[in-house]
Amino acid sequence: MDALEWLLFLCIYSKVTQIAELSWTADVPNEVKGLLGSCVVIPCSYNYPDPQGKAKSFTGIWMTTEGDRVIYHPTQSKIVKQYQSRTKLLEDASSKNCSLMIEKLQQNDRGPFYFRIEIEGYDRASYRKNKVSISVMGEPNPTDFSVQEEVKEGQTVSASCSVSHSCPTYPPDFHWSHPGVQHFQAQKLQNGQWNSTSTLTFRSNRTDHNKSLQCRVTYHEGKHQETSKTIQVKYAPVNVKVEYQSDMNEGETAHLKCSSDANPVSSYEWHSEAGALLNKGQTYTMSNVSRHSEAVYCTAVNEEGRVRSSTVKLNVLYAPDIKSSSKCFSERGKVMCECIVESRPPSMLHFVLGDRVVQNSKVQTVGSVTTGTLQTDFGSFKFVHCLANNTLGNANLTLSLPLVDNMQNIFIASGAGVIFLIVLIATGVGVVKKWGRSGETPTSDLGIMKAERSVELHHYAPTKRKEDRKDMSCSDIYANDHVYGNVGISNDFINNSFIMCMHKQSE
Ligand SMILES: *[C@@H]1O[C@H](CO)[C@@H](O)[C@H](O)[C@H]1NC(C)=O
Ligand SMILES: *[C@@H]1O[C@H](CO)[C@@H](O)[C@H](O)[C@H]1NC(C)=O
Ligand SMILES: *[C@@H]1O[C@H](CO)[C@@H](O)[C@H](O)[C@H]1NC(C)=O
Ligand SMILES: *[C@@H]1O[C@H](CO)[C@@H](O)[C@H](O)[C@H]1NC(C)=O
Ligand SMILES: *[C@@H]1O[C@H](CO)[C@@H](O)[C@H](O)[C@H]1NC(C)=O
Ligand SMILES: *[C@@H]1O[C@H](CO)[C@@H](O)[C@H](O)[C@H]1NC(C)=O
Ligand SMILES: *[C@@H]1O[C@H](CO)[C@@H](O)[C@H](O)[C@H]1NC(C)=O
């Protein structure tokens, strides 16, 4: 062999050994962190020279470097007790993937370990140089929790929670304390570590303000970890309301306070119902309140908005005040009295005729105004009294009864009156003629009108009524309903009485 041949041989030989050495390789990390009690996966890949069809079956084995104890073998019985039923190859050994999973990791599962392959009908190899240790951790790695801690109401909150672990077969489970859309993501890191991330997105709401958002991570076989952050949600004022003592007496001082729920805290403004700015600040003092005191409202203001309270009107209490528009009047022949009272609380109303309380015909209350209506037989009274009282006091007003239409009133009051009126006019004309001859009474219809007025005057002299009964006074005729109500009474009697009256009154 010459020098050249020798060199060529060397060159070829080294190439072959290089290829052979490269072929029997394994790739494992030096160290894998694992969580006590959980599972750990040792990532592993290996290689072997091409068996050129000689390979029949593959047996992947894992062993400890110290004492060569079998920690994994497809035949369970060959595994040392400590690791039995806790170890597993994740892929078929022929796939050149020798990743090993150890479950329920124990404190002394530290290793180091190495992989061995036995290829039936070809060769076998132990990758002793490629050893891996397990660093057993008592507690999981801290959770990386991130969230935008301050948001405006309605904005989307995006929170993410991520942990690193070494058990990709059973990744940790994430649980959020708030509903929302969840998204899970796993990312491979180095040395058998994985990054698992859960993101939660939801629309922020004021009800979330100052609440803690919690992310709970549960690892395979139970260990868990919780992290939380408080979220600040900015929102415009809500529940803007005025607190005040409702019932007050006139002249008292009212203290009004506005409150609201807002973030950041509201400032306040007070306005009259008409819109005039009254005060700035959470409270407003109204001195010397009266029934005329204006309604007010408050406005809560923060950087997110301005919100008005409802309008507040104090319920100022006062004694009855009988309005001067109260009156008695005649309408279509009927006399009616109307008494209008303003008070708070609403008053009780009575009419007093002489010394007798008469029942109201109608009482109506609208707000602070109470109107009592009386329609009755007023007899010969000239006045009626209206009395009003509430819890704060009382008032009275004397109303004059009208002097008109009484005659008409009486006639219309009875059906017989109409008939009688006709008879009256008919006979009256005759009477006038008779009297006309003697020259003592005025002629024509004028006489009747005069008589009517005189009768009314009598009507307002009640004391005389009783004594005059015997000689049938005019007031009896016109005032006493019974005379007209009794249809059976003789026409002659009425006629004569009337004649008498006319005679008497015209004097
Ligand atoms: C080996 O198998 C595991 C589990 O299926 C897998 O996660 C890993 O990526 C594989 N390794 C390679 C190098 O393909
Ligand atoms: C906040 O939540 C309440 C009740 O859950 C809901 O009525 C309201 O519309 C929500 N507001 C926003 C801005 O989502
Ligand atoms: C895990 O992944 C997430 C999302 O890709 C990233 O924000 C986070 O920083 C990663 N954590 C680690 C420990 O690598
Ligand atoms: C937030 O909550 C804490 C307790 O959970 C409480 O002390 C604090 O007053 C709250 N702050 C606001 C602005 O609501
Ligand atoms: C209170 O108001 C009334 C009218 O509403 C007024 O007559 C009175 O003088 C006021 N009193 C005080 C002390 O201001
Ligand atoms: C008004 O006075 C009468 C009699 O004194 C009494 O019974 C009634 O309760 C009073 N009404 C009110 C509203 O105070
Ligand atoms: C009517 O009011 C006056 C004072 O305005 C009072 O003196 C009188 O007693 C009152 N009369 C009745 C019947 O209440």
TrEMBL record:
Keywords: Disulfide bond, Membrane, Signal, Transmembrane, Transmembrane helix
Keyword match Disulfide bond: yes
Coiled coil ranges: none
Ig-like domain mapped to chain residues: 140-232, 237-315
GO CC, any one term: membrane
SMART domains the UniProt entry points to: IG
Subcellular location: Membrane
Superkingdom of this protein's organism: Eukaryota
Secretion signal, residue range per the UniProt entry: 1-19
Cross-referenced InterPro entries: CD80_C2-set (IPR013162), Ig-like_dom (IPR007110), Ig-like_dom_sf (IPR036179), Ig-like_fold (IPR013783), Ig_sub (IPR003599), Ig_V-set (IPR013106)
Residue stretches spanning the membrane: 410-432
SUPFAM superfamilies the UniProt entry points to: Immunoglobulin
Membrane topology, from the record: Single-pass membrane protein
PROSITE patterns named among the record's database cross-references: IG_LIKE
Protein name listed in UniProt: Ig-like domain-containing protein
Gene that this polypeptide is encoded by: LOC116335439
